[in-house]
Design goal:
By secondary structure, the protein is an alpha/beta fold. The chain is about 50% helix and about 10% strand. The chain has 13 helices and seven strands. It has a seven-stranded mixed β-sheet with strand order 2-1-3-4-5-6-7. Strand 6, helix 7 and strand 7 form a beta-alpha-beta unit. Helix 11 runs parallel beside helix 13 and helix 12 runs antiparallel to helix 13. The longest helix is centred in the middle third of the chain and has 28 residues. The chain is elongated. The relative contact order is 0.09.
């Protein structure tokens, strides 16, 4: 770790100059939030035309420059590139001498902790991993959504207070994640948020096929209540034919999905099996009903007696 004096955010009346490397959906929103807290965005880099337009919208007047120049201009640099691109970017910046001693280098990858910044740390940078647990649209609404958003924070212990202070200034809530737990933490978020979008999109498509004119209006209250119940009660919020052990209904579902949307069958069966396991473990699914249900899930279309199930 560098012995360069570490900046105390509370002792800097001029605040920090901020740069963004990677003007995707996340970086400009975080920089805009820091600007609201009194920091000053001074440079941003972006490759695609979409990213350049996004930077101009979210950070008007902030010049677009190459990544190395972003580091030259900023005290605090946000590295907001895709996870797989981050290690190569950090190594390249360090090897070309772009990193300045005492510079706060922040990445927003959920997968990585502070160790991925080691090449820059050896060059004197101060490494922080600040991952917002939020989905981003690339529009100004993202800045509002950061209010109360949890951030997965990983940093050397001596930088922990600085990292948490930055999160609080962006309106977020810091949640400390150890270096070794970052991949598990990120997998948990992806399991919930990313797969939720797929499930909702599939549900909307099926409702349209069934003749529902406004599937979003139908699903909104239902999914909102389900999410609220799950967050409050966990597995005890499980409802529906799988948790009840309605093997015939589940078999009818599979038959209809094979007919109208075969691409959804594998996902339906996988989630139904996982739901059955959890319902059994928590005493919601009666063991005497589980056998027929698990038989339906095993062969994907029929009950244990080999006949097509029918909805009840």
């Amino acid at each position: 770790m560098s012995t360069v004096h570490q900046p105390d955010l509370k002792d800097r009346p001029a605040r920090l100059t901020v740069g963004v490397v990677g003007a995707g959906r996340v970086g400009p929103a975080l920089a805009a939030s820091l600007q609201l807290a009194g920091h000053r965005p001074v440079a941003v880099s972006g490759v695609s035309e979409a990213s350049r337009r996004r930077a101009e919208t979210m950070l008007p007047g902030v010049p677009l420059v190459p990544p190395a120049e972003v580091l030259q201009r900023a005290d605090l640099v946000l590295l907001t590139v895709p996870d797989d691109a981050l290690p190569g970017l950090v190594t390249g910046l360090a090897e070309t001498g772009a990193v300045r001693p005492g510079q706060l280098l922040v990445h927003t990858s959920g997968r990585y902790g502070a160790q991925v910044l080691a090449p820059a740390t050896r060059a004197g940078a101060l490494p922080l991993a600040l991952h917002p647990a939020m989905t981003f649209t690339g529009t100004p609404v993202d800045v509002q959504r950061l209010a109360g958003c949890s951030f997965g924070v990983t940093a050397p212990e001596e930088l922990r207070l600085a990292a948490e202070a930055l999160v609080i200034e962006m309106g977020g809530e810091p949640e400390w994640i150890s270096e070794e737990n970052r991949p598990l933490y990120h997998a948990a978020l992806a399991l919930g948020a990313n797969h939720l979008v797929t499930l909702v999109a599939q549900s909307m498509e099926l409702l349209r096929t069934a003749g529902v004119e406004a599937p979003d209006r139908m699903l909104g209250p239902l999914l909102g209540a389900a999410l609220d119940n799950a967050l409050r009660s966990g597995d005890l919020a499980l409802t529906g034919p799988v948790a009840r052990g309605d093997a015939g209904t589940v078999a009818a579902h599979v038959t209809e999905l094979r007919k109208h949307a075969p691409q959804t069958v594998a996902g339906y069966l996988a989630m139904a099996r996982a739901t059955a396991d959890r319902a059994l473990a928590h005493g919601l699914l009666k063991p005497e009903l589980a056998e027929d249900l698990l038989g339906v899930l095993a062969d994907g279309s029929t009950g244990t007696n080999g006949t097509e199930g029918s909805a009840r």
